[in-house]
Amino acid sequence: MKLVRRIVIAFGSIAALTNTSATAETPAWLLKMDWNITDNHLLELTAFSDQQDTDTDVYRNAAGSLTVKVLRATTAGTEEGLIRALDLKGLPLGELRLWRHAQCYLCTPLLRSGFESEALEAFLGWLARDSGASLLRLHYLPGEGPFHCALLRHFERHPRLMHFTERYTRALFRPRRSAEGYLRAAVPGRKLKEFRRLARRLADQGQLEYRQFGRGEPAADWILAFLALEERGWKGRAGTALASTPASRAWFERIALEAARRGRLLMHGLYLNGRALALSCKIRAGDGAYAFKIAYDEDYEQFSPGLLLELEQIVRMHGAARIGWLDSCAVPEHFMANRLWLDRRALETVTLAAGGAGALLVLLLPILRWVRRGLARAP
């Protein structure tokens, strides 16, 4: 059984005064890590990139102090740790973690259906024997579903020190029997009346309409309109809009156009006299979808156009545009998503001991977390 890995791990020395790490990232637009376990077993991680960079870092440190090394993947102007290796009190603890693109909201490893157990067993065996890492950090994992169950079944058969470092939920939409019943359960009566009053006030100013991207339309028009609207808002001023950098803009255009070609791009808009007041972008996946982005015109902020668009989509997703589920991809405390969407999706981060000092650290993680919480509560 041969495992092909495309990972580089670099450790720093605590005896040196400086440490240098150089990383070359290729291909220019796609990072693909494949572990060909057998002819029938494949563990695959894929993430998109749009640059080809060589990064060199020089770390200055006093001899004997903590040295951190990060193997970087640079995409869309954002760096995410692919592998982190550190020296802690003189003990090298290499940490291997899932690579995550800046615009990725779920990091479930891609395993061939029906071979989850074999793939996990072979991969974790390699982790303990040959990876050189002491820890494996699996983050942005679903807290339910096939991979979650496969992981738990594996550890029932092969006990290994592990710790659920983080667990949280984010908003999820699932349709009910009727849109009216859903809205009554999600929004208090007075608030719902207020939102409908805002929609009537907008309609008094001209033609108010809701539009949906159709397969016969050019997707580029919707994509460019979304990029322009988002850039005019607070994200543009903060430099975090997709159009803020050429790299992130090109990445989004490529992803959205490909989704449209495959019939997976869902875009909706709220328009007043032909002017886009709010636009949303979703990516379909199976019988569900991921709510990727939403943008609104701040000149009409007092009318809550983004919220009005979401309310209309709730109605339509109970009708002809019915959908099995919709992941908000929002942060746990997101106000609008938590307010409108009744269901929740569980996410978790799991830390595994690969061997050596990693086992000791995993044992200490619950204690360290308890101490950190105590210090945070202290006056």
**End-to-end distance:** 56 Å
Low-pLDDT sequence parts: 1-29, 54-91
Secondary-structure element sequence? EEEEEEEEHEHEHHEHHHEEEHEHEH
- Based on secondary structure, the structural category is alpha+beta
Q: In one word, what is the shape? A: elongated
Q: What does the average pLDDT come to? A: 77
Percent range for β-strand residues: 25-35%
Helix content: 25-40%
Overall tally of domains: 2
Number of E-type strands: 16
Query: Reading side by side through the largest sheet, how are the strands ordered?
Result: 5-6-7-9-16-10-15-14-13-12-11
- Put simply, the count of helices is 10
The largest β sheet comes out as: 11 strands, mixed
Radius of gyration computed on alpha carbons: 24 Å
Please give a structural write-up.
With 379 residues, the chain is of the alpha+beta class. It folds into 2 domains: 18-169 and 346-377, no CATH class; 175-341, Aminopeptidase. Helix content is 32%, strand content 33%. It is built from 10 helices and 16 strands. It has an 11-stranded mixed sheet, sandwiched between helices. It has a 3-stranded antiparallel sheet with strand order 2-3-8. Strands 1-4 form a two-stranded antiparallel sheet. Strand 5 (67-75) and strand 6 (78-88) form a beta hairpin. Helix 3 packs across helix 8 (305-316) and helix 5 packs antiparallel against helix 7 (246-261).
